[in-house]
Amino acid sequence: xxxxxxxxxxxxxxxxxxxxxxxxxxxxxxxxxxxxxxxxxxxxxxxxxxxxxxxxxxxxxxxxxxxxxxxxxxxxxxxxxxxxxxxxxxxxxxxxxxxxxxxxxxxxxxxxxxxxxxxxxxxxxxxxxxxxxxxxxxxxxxxxxxxxxxxxxxxxxxxxxxxxxxxxxxxxxxxxxxxxxxxxxxxxxxxxxxxxxxxxxxxxxxxxxxxxxxxxxxxxxxxxxxxxxxxxxxxxxxxxxxxxxxxxxxxxxxxxxxxxxxxxxxxxxxxxxxxxxxxxxxxxxxxxxxxxxxxxxxxxxxxxxxxxxxxxxxxxxxxxxxxxxxxxxxxxxxxxxxxxxxxxxxxxxxxxxxxxxxxxxxxxxxxxxxxxxxxxxxxxxxxxxxxxxxxxxxxxxxxxxxxxxxxxxxxxxxxxxxxxxxxxxxxxxxxxxxxxxxxxxxxxxxxxxxxxxxxxxxxxxxxxxxxxxxxxxxxxxxxxxxxxxxxxxxxxxxxxxxxxxxxxxxxxxxxxxxxxxxxxxxxxxx
Length: 526
Fold this sequence. Notes:
The protein has helices at about 1-20, 75-85, 110-115, 145-160, 185-195, 215-225, 255-285, 290-335, 335-340, 430-435, 445-475, 485-500, 505-515; strands at about 25, 30-35, 40, 50-55, 60-70, 95-100, 115-120, 130-135, 165, 170-175, 205-210, 240, 290, 345-355, 365-370, 375, 395, 395-400, 410-415, 415-425. The chain is elongated. The termini are far apart. Helix 4 packs parallel to helix 5 (about 185-195), helix 8 packs antiparallel against helix 11 (about 445-475) and helix 12 packs antiparallel against helix 13. Strand 17 (about 395) and strand 18 form a beta hairpin. By secondary structure, the chain is α/β, with parallel strands linked by helices. It folds into 2 domains: about 1-285, Rossmann fold, CATH 3.40.50; about 295-445, no CATH class. Keywords: Coiled coil, Nucleotide-binding.
């Protein structure tokens, strides 16, 4: 009994100490306080920021949770509820602590560029330390382009932050009253899940907010219909926890005080029961490494870069075909001069590459190979101090450019290569000089040109197969290969597999598309 009383006294003392060190936001019942935190912007692009409370004790167990939810679901209140639960705040204390800041307090630049907020909660009197990774609400007007950057932010977070190298739980925050999930909700759930191995399913839980305490039947049906994968209990039912978002609400002017007290008591009890369940779950589940997140995202990036390179290769092949056809027509038209080995002039449309300024609305920089004169990573290329760390690099060499050149042959700049054509006068003598070392007595000039075209076709096939293998690898390691990121390129790859007469690979891609469902291919336009 004395030990319990002593523990309660210590908690009360700690609580009073936190009140003294915090900033009063609003007096009332409860009184709202903002915890004093240190805020860090870790890199120039400001894709994520970090807010830290307290000092880390490396000997303490450390848990990390990822929060995903639509704007308006009460995700911010939920984060603050977690903090109050760890602080040991009780209803009778009549205080409420907040670690989150008001979005309006951010600068205009920060509100446009900051994608993820990392809350590090290092409470000395707590048995564990906690990191909360808060993804932005995807109901915001900034659109799907911002949603895509969440994946990039998680990638960079896992690469550069020593404190965030594994995830204990992915928390999908949904209103308990919701009857259906909207396209963008499904998109972001799908995109986040696609970053992990398939076994992340057992770490995904549903957090239902604005709950009355009754089972959220409609919301659970909506989750089921949207085919959202998550952890299941012994009865093969989704693991979920209920929360009420009214703990910090002050009484209305015309609200009966007794009724307000009763409502607040119910709200606190419901939410803190949910917290007990969530933390019990965190104690029992095995964390998942963000290392695989980096590997999977790197495969996504290589896939996208390879497909863009493939499309450029197809374009180049068609232009070369056109140039060859015009050259053959000129040889045929001047057949007599060819037979007599006389010089003549002809006009063809030749291809060339030119460096142009990148579209700043699409990307900040482009990774280009100076040897191959190709765009190896554009767009989605972010600045790294060492080019070897770019996601298209592997073992110091590019996985995209034609010659797979060393990273030192690449540059990151605000220009990229574009393929253009122009009319140019050629002569028969120039053509012979160009190919004199490549043709033998028994090989005609036309035949050599045809062989060169075949080499281009081989390169196109090689690129198509490389892109296919990226998709195939993702199906083995990713939770959800049917993500929009893959589907954006599926049709193009299917067409190329048919062109190179590989129906087996085309069928595999068709099956991936079929599983995803035709409606999901329209999400990006919503």
